[in-house]
Amino acid sequence: AACSSKYVLSQMHPMWQEPLPIPGGDRQSPIDIVVRKSVYDSELKPLVTDYDPQTCQQIWNNGYSFLVEYDDTTDKSTVKGGPLQDKYRLCQFHFHWGESNAWGSEHTVDRKLFSAELHLVHWNSDKYSLFEEAVMEENGLAVIGVFLKVGKRHEGLQKLVDALPAIRHKNSVVDFNRFDPACLLPSNTDDYWTYHGSLTTPPLTESVTWMVMKQHIEVSHDQLAVFRSLLFTSADEEVQKGMVNNFRVQQSQCGRTVRSSFS
Ligand SMILES: Clc1ccc(Cc2nnn[n-]2)cc1
Ligand SMILES: [Zn+2]
What we know:
By secondary structure, this protein is mainly beta. It has three helices and 15 strands. The model is unreliable at 4-14 (pLDDT under 50). Bound molecules: the ligand Clc1ccc(Cc2nnn[n-]2)cc1 and zinc ion.
């Protein structure tokens, strides 16, 4: 199966050519979270996020998604607790979404697809001094995943949505400050699933402790439509391609246990 092979089996992923040499290859992400197979772990603590909106720096289109980047030269915006032994510094957050509301998330819950998924990417600043170092290490990264469902308008998201037309093309960037990513977290962050996995775009390194929130957030159809107005392509390319379906195909569980913080 895909677990033993050193190569990720290519499955029609539009974003990059596969197979790619993956170190190990048995801890890839995303996966389907099979609720009845997840194991309740009473030792799992609540997540503790402490984000400083002043550390928000810019928003840009990297040709895969749009990223909101934070100043990670100090421990000003961090996550700890939960399954984490150390403190992790927020470096950026971004989303994955579909061309329709029917799909778009990277993880699924009992095969249920959500319209989009938010990823808050942090690196272990207790053990490493740079993201680039941490990205290669088993305990290097911690990513919080939050599912998005189409429903009522998300007031906090609107500031982000209003900035997107300025970064329609790949490699465009605009200043963006005073955005508190905590407004994108669900009201309940005590209930989550956690497992060891990987980044879902190159370098696909198996350095991520995933914490996927059980509770989703709601955004409006119109807000998600603005995500879909972004382009994968830079301004100088002849053929422009709409930035949709920027999620990776699901990977084999390879015998991994998904733990839950709730029974
Ligand atoms: Cl630095 C970096 C590289 C890839 C991704 C994409 C991703 N990996 N896991 N979730 N999203 C995010 C940040
Ligand atoms: Zn992501």
